[in-house]
Every structure is written in structure tokens, then in C-alpha cells.
Amino acid sequence: MVTPGWFAPVLAALVIGLWLALRRTDTSMVALLWAGAAIAVVALFVTPHFLDEAPQLVTESDGAPLAKALLRWAAAGVPLLVLCFLEGVVWRRRVAEAGAALLAYGLAAQLLPTDALAWASALAAIALFQARRERAGAIAAWTAIALGWAAAPFGQWLGAALESLVGTPILLFDLPSPFEAALHLLPAVATLAIVRFERFSHGWQSLASHWLALPLGLVVLHIFYRQLFAIETMTRFIDLGMAERTIWQAILLGFGWIAARGAGRFAGDPRAAAALACASLAHFAIYSSWWHNPMTAAQAVGSTPVANLFFTAFAVAIAAGLLLRHWVPERLRPHCNALVMILATLGAIALLRQAFGGSTPHDVPLGQTEDLLRSLIGIVMALAFLWIGSRLGERSWRVGSLAVMLIALVKVFAFDAAGLSGLLRIASFAALGASLIGLGWFYTRQLKATATS
Questions:
Q1: Are 305 and 255 in contact (CB under 8 A)?
Q2: Is the backbone of residue 400 left (phi > 0), alpha (psi -120 to 50) or beta?
Q3: CB contact at 8 A, 93 and 87
Q4: Where are the domains of the chain?
Q5: CA-CA distance, 35 to 14, in Å (whole number)?
Q6: How many CB atoms lie within 10 A of CB 195?
Q7: What average pLDDT values come out for the chain (453 residues) when binned by 10 residues?
Q8: In Å, what is the CA distance from 225 to each residue of 178, 218, 249?
């Protein structure tokens, strides 16, 4: 070759410029630009110097000489940059914009440190969206690059989260570091929160991408939040796991409340609020009620009766159920009432278990007295639900009270009475009979009051 290999993209750009100077009709100019752009890009990729420059796109390396690398990437991008202004067909102009943006990223990668590339792409997308949002091709390309940088840390977080769904605790070293979250995940969150794509020529509706930032933003928040507890060993997981989960559930519910009310330029959205409340409830159900329930697994809840993590965790879950009543369609509200009744009953049983078992109830076996008190709790909760139903005038609470009472009766007759003898059995049946008489009187009184009104 007359010129060195690294000069091929530059030479291609010069040849294109000469042809444009000789032939200036619009049609030939655009056609030559597309041909020249293809030649320049191919020349960039096939020359040996690309092997030295390519690693700079994703990682730190010695790379090629900086001046040559900058000249090669800039020359390859010039034809595409010109096409962004001359191409009249919308979809072709979008392709030119995306190609020019990708080559601009390659140019920046030769100059900037690797840790700055995700933020550089995100800021470029945001700046272009604010200044010239019709350049959707370039904005989409830079947004895709920012999301690409988020893929690895998000994948690491997702792997740990999926393992936790089958009972494996998430320890601190299972998650990306705060450094990775700040440099690689946050740029994607910022881009998705700000950039919105306008309608394309095919009539697609505008994509409200800012809501896509919410789940990814929660991932970033979760990574930073876990640093506060620094649960690195199983011992710390036993001591702090319940507290860490309960506070996170409260945070999710708090964001749901903010989403319902709206914040800044974002209007309130009950659907987003309901999704966050459901996420809080799902977290409670999967982890604190199933895999790491202190009644069945080694988890510390505190030694003080009532004022302990059992009370806090169930209070947050019940609050989520009550708030869901306002954020879901009216036809689903009876289901929310049923959920609240289930949580309240289980919460009362959990507080009873802590009163007998202490900070780690799993270590203390269930006694006969506690088992009998569980039945009493069921009866008391049924009466409480019936009273609430009469005050609110909602049938679902009254139906729920009867269901809880039926379960308590089955437990008393099928299990509790079998373990008693003599006077204790007589006393238990007497107490049960008195409860049933009281419940029947109260329910009949409420039916008469409803009929009268």
C-alpha cells in the first residue's frame, strides 16, 4: 500500500469529499455518501489497527497511538454525520444517526477512561434529547450503550435475586459493589428517567420510558441499601436479616405512596403505586413469611414482647394491604380486605410465638398453653373483624370473621380437645360455647340493624 493501513478510513473520507466536489447533484451526493460511509466503516474494521482500538470500547488497554485512533474513528464517522443532515428518508436518516453515534462512542472510548464511558453515553443521550430530540436514531444508540454497560452488574444482581427465591440468603459479596452501581447502573437509570422517544414514521405511540427507570432504580437503591447492614456471614444474617427485610419492605411501600401522590413533574399513578405495594407484600410473603420466617428458621426478632420485629413487619404488610384498597379497582377491594384479615391473624399468632419463644422463636418448641391461646386468638380476631365489618358496612369483613371463626372451631374440636382431659376439656368447651353464643348474638344484632336501616 502507498499509505499505511491505519490511514484507510481517512483516505476513504478524502476520496468521498473529492467526489462530492465534482458531482454536486443531491441524488448523487446522498448515494455517494452512503457508499463512502460503508467503505469508511469497513476500512476502519478490517485494518489491523482496529484490533488495538477495539478493547478500548469496553475495558482499559494500552490501545493504539491516540492521535491515529482519533483520526481513524473521526474520519469513519464524517460521512454518516453528513447524512444525518442530507438524507431525506426518515428511516435511513435514523440509521445514519445511530451509526454516527456509535462511531462517536468509539472515538470517545479511545480518549476517555473506561469508567467514564457509561456516563458519557448517558449524558450524550440526555443532552441530545434536550437539544434536538428529533435525532431519535442517535439518542437510541447512546441509550442502548448506557443500557449495555448496565447489563453486567444488573445480571449479577439478578442472579443473586433468583437464588434468593429458592431460599439462598443474599450476602454482601453476592451483589455488585456500590462503585459498579454508581458508574454502570446509575447512567442507565438517568437515561431512562429523562429520555422519551417520540413517535416514529410508522405511527408507533410515544414510549413512556421514564417508568422503565423505576425497577432499575430500585436495583441501584437495593445495592446501596444493603451496604448499611453489611450482611457478609450467616451469623449476621440471623441477627440482622429480619430487620433488613422489614425496612426494605417499608421503603418499597413508601415509594408506592410517593408514586400515588406524584412527585415533581411526574403525576401520581395508582398503577405504579399498587405495583410497589404488591412488591412490598411479595417480598414479605416470600422471605419473611416463607423462607426465613422466624417461627420456622433461625432469625432474630427482638426480645421485647409486642414491640419487636414481628410487630413491625406485619404492620408494614397490613399497611400495604390497606393502601392497596385505594389504589386498585373497587372490585378488588374485598380481596384486599381478606388479605388484611389474614395478615392481622397471622401477626397476632406470631406475636404470641415471640412471647413464648423470645428473640429466636424457632429455638423454642410449641407448648400446649400457647397452642390453646392460638385458638383464643382466632376467636378474638373473628369478633374484631365482625365489628369492623359492621362499622364499615362491608360484607367481606363479616364473611372473613365467619371464616376465621370456623377455622378456630375446627382447630378446637379436632386438635385442642384431643390433648385435654377432665376439667380442662370441660372448661375449653364452655369457653367455646360462650364465644359462639356471643358471636351469634352480635351477628344477629347487626343483621337486624342492617335490615332496619
A1: no
A2: alpha
A3: yes
A4: 1-111, 245-366, 372-453
A5: 13
A6: 24
A7: 48 52 58 81 85 87 78 86 85 93 94 94 96 92 96 97 96 96 97 75 47 90 96 96 97 94 78 94 97 95 95 98 94 95 97 95 89 87 88 88 86 71 69 72 66 59
A8: 10, 10, 12
